Amino acid sequence: MSEKLVIAIDGPAGAGKSTIARRLARRLGFLYIDTGAMYRAVAWWALQRETDFSDMHRLGQLAKEARIELLDGGSRVRLNGEDITDRIRTQQMSEAASKVSAVPAVRRALVEKQRAMGAAQSVVMEGRDIGTVVFPNARIKIFLDASAETRAGRRLKDLDATGAASTLDQVVREIRERDERDSSRATAPLRQAPDAEYLDTSRMTIEQVEEAILKIYRDRTSNGKELPK
Ligand code: DC
Q1: Rounded to an integer, what distance in angstroms lies between the CA atom of residue 212 and that of residue 17?
Q2: Residue 129 near residue 39, CB atoms below 8 Å
Q3: Terminus of the chain with fewer CB atoms < 10 Å: N or C?
Q4: Domain spans of the chain?
């Protein structure tokens, strides 16, 4: 059986992780896995069920029972057979996902699903804790970053596309609050793994980021095979 490779991409909201991870996966023929979408799916279900967000046990149960499918190259999300792609991209869902993601039982359940996905085939997986917790032995780890203003500008564009009205100031504030929560939680906070490559994408085009990561990929592997550690 050939070796499965994991490209782990972590970083704060709006750093460009999804765009770049999707492109890399397509280019390398890997599966793209957006772990943020999995936290969003659990948050959506919890809201549907009117779950009390302080009921950690219940949230953990929901995460365990959730049947989450990432379809069409990772662009569509299905929860328990229902397509919820468009419903999980609102500002309200970003905040709700950030809250449920701080619950240890939720993380345990989703990390288990993520590891199973990565064991089955080569993946480009993006999130907050992929290089630190989900796949600490991943050969290729990238920490993508950008200034809060750049990231808020990108988020604003995404929100505009969905028709939601927001100002740049508002989005900068929200993104800072969410980063603070994601970085300061006790379980698996957003953090750069010591062996991850740091890339600030503020002044880079998507093509430049893609090339930079492909170079790291080539440097850390040999013809797509892992080098001995
Ligand atoms: O990447 P995103 O904005 O869709 O993620 C939504 C929230 O989920 C984010 O605020 C933090 C959380 N998250 C996490 O804690 N760990 C991950 N691996 C991915 C996302």
Answers
A1: 14
A2: no
A3: N
A4: 6-216
Cα of first residue to Cα of last residue in the chain, in angstroms, is 19
CA distance 91 to 146: 20
Regarding the beta carbon of 201 and ligand 1, being less than 6 Å apart is answered no
Confidence label for 225 from pLDDT (cuts 50, 70 and 90): low
Q: Which two tokens stand for residue 160?
A: 């505009």
Is any ligand 1 atom within 6 A of the Cβ of residue 129? yes
Q: Determine the distance separating the centroid of ligand 1 and the alpha carbon of 45, expressed in angstroms.
A: 16
221, β-bridge pairs: 226
Q: Is the CB of 127 under 6 A from ligand 1?
A: yes
Q: What is the pLDDT of residue 229?
A: 45
DSSP per residue over 96-142, as a string?
HHHHHTT-HHHHHHHHHHHHHHHHHS-EEEEESSIIIII-TT-SEEE
- CATH architecture of the domain formed by 6-216: 3-Layer(aba) Sandwich (3.40)
- The structure's pTM equals 0.93
- Can you give the C-alpha Rg of the chain in angstroms? 17
What type of residue is 84?
I
Among protein residues, the one whose CA lies closest to atom 1 of ligand 1: 36
- H or E segment at 156? helix 148-161
Q: Give the pLDDT confidence of 152-187 residue by residue, as tens digits.
A: 988 888 777 766 767 888 889 999 999 999 999 999
Q: How far does the centroid of ligand 1 lie from the alpha carbon of residue 228, in Å?
A: 32
Here the tokens at position 71 are 């379809």
CA distance 114 to 131: 12
Q: Which residue has the tokens 């970003």?
A: 94
